[in-house]
Amino acid sequence: MNAPIDWLLEGEPFIEYRTRRDLLNQPADSQQVSTARKSMLASQPVKNLMTELSKWPGTVLSSHKNAGQLFHKLTFLADLGLTINDPGMEEIVAAILNHQSPEGPFQLPTNIPVHFGGNGQDQWAWALCDAPLTVYAMAKFGLQNHPAIQVASDHLVSLLRDNGWPCAVQRNWENGAVLGEKRIPAHLPIWPCSKHCPKLNRSVIA
Fold this sequence. Notes:
Layout: H1 3-9, H2 13-23, H3 31-42, H4 44-53, H5 70-80, H6 89-97, E1 108-111, E2 122-125, H7 131-143, H8 147-158, H9 197-205
Antiparallel strand pairs: 1-2
Helix pairs in contact: 2-3, 4-5, 5-7, 7-8
C-alpha cells in the first residue's frame, strides 16, 4: 500500500488524473486514466474554469501577478491536460487567436498608467509577463504546429539574450509606452518541444 499515492487518487478528479499520468505513468488510453479524465472534465471546478475562460480575455489587465487573470487559468487547464478537442475549447482558442499582434504574440486588454509611460487608456497589447504563458497553453492544447503559434513562438524566442529574456512589451503602444527599459531578466516557460527546444534548453541551463 502506497499511502501518498492512495491519498492522491482519492482527491479531486483532476488530481487523480494527473496522479495516474504523472506519478503512476499509466497510458492515456488505459481504462483507469480514461475514466479519471472523464470525471475531471465533468467536475465542477473544471467546468467553472471553462465557463470563466469562455469570456476570454476577461477583465483589463492590471497585474500579471494576479492569479485571477484568465491567462493563468488558461495555463492551469493546459497543465491539467485539456486539449483543443475537449468541449468548449475550440471557442476559447478562437477568441485567443482573434487578437494576435503584428509581431506574433497574443494580446490582452491592458491599461498602462501615465506615470509608467502609458496613456491610461484600455488597449490590446502583450508583455513578456503574459505572452509566453498563452503560447505555452496553446501549444499544450495541441496547437504547437499551428502557424499562429509558430509565429508567436518565433518572436518570443527572438527576444532571447545570452542572460535570458529581458522585460519586453509590444512596441507600437500608443504614446510609445515601453515598459522594462531596465531589462530585468524574465523567465519564459518551455512549451512542448519545437524547433526552438535546443536554444530554450540552453537558456535555462545558462
